[in-house]
From TrEMBL:
PANTHER family: F-BOX ONLY PROTEIN 21, SI:DKEY-261L7.2
Family affiliation: Belongs to the UPF0162 family.
Organism for this UniProt entry: Actinacidiphila bryophytorum
Cited InterPro entries: SirB1_N
Descriptive protein name: Regulator of sirC expression, contains transglutaminase-like and TPR domains
Protein SirB1 N-terminal domain span: 44-181
Pfam families on file: Transglut_core2 (PF13369)
Signal peptide interval: none
Amino acid sequence: MTVPERFAAAARDERPDLAHLCLLIGARAEPALDGDAADAAQIELDRLAGLLPHGLCTPLDWAVALHRVLGAGHGFHGTPGDYQRLSSSLLQEVLRRRRGLPILLSVVWIEVARRAGAPVYGVALPGHFAVGIGEPDGEHVLVDPFDGGRLMSAADAQLLAEGAESFTPADPLDVVQRILNNIRVWAAPRPEHRAVQLWALDLTLLLPRHPAKLRYERAQLLVAMGDFLGGAAEMDSYAEVIGTFDPESASAIRLRARSARAHLN
């Protein structure tokens, strides 16, 4: 099976495996990150989990132990410069470099803690991504893997959440979609990386749920890459979808499709 086929199958599992899906994103970005490299990443997550002490009980105990092993002990953290690297969104590379975006570092924390038996979950904040340990509606703590696993105060969390009052666990597929969105955002202003933007879009469209407008984004990208017929066809298809509730926008998109085809004349 191809990487996209494996990704589509994994995304439709009854209980999607977050690490597996993230490793498939890495494999799609770089074939060398598939196979043995993906297996090595899973082994590394197991190894790190094995370094956590036994008998941890409270959320604070888990948070302190994770910081000691991952943050202080192995140097996992992020810096502003990591936002400029595609590798910061690829789990294999984050495990190798011990650097990455907040969401990928959070995946490391989640997967290591989960393997060790911790009650752990991701927390998707509007401008950040953090990790919760404990019961979301009971005793819990929030940690910031981008800052080496620093404990977050309530004030920290509220500031990042822009006043949100609850921090519900992030669904694994929503985490994966956010990672792919980060890759698209990274690639979009770089014409030399349009192929990266395209495969990130294609993987997103394989998820069981995704914004319909991404199909129009894909159509525009195809046109920008010189596939005028393919882009026009996808514009027409998207116009059909939205035509029943937004006929004005559908009409404008059909005009853009005709304009794209005109480039062939």
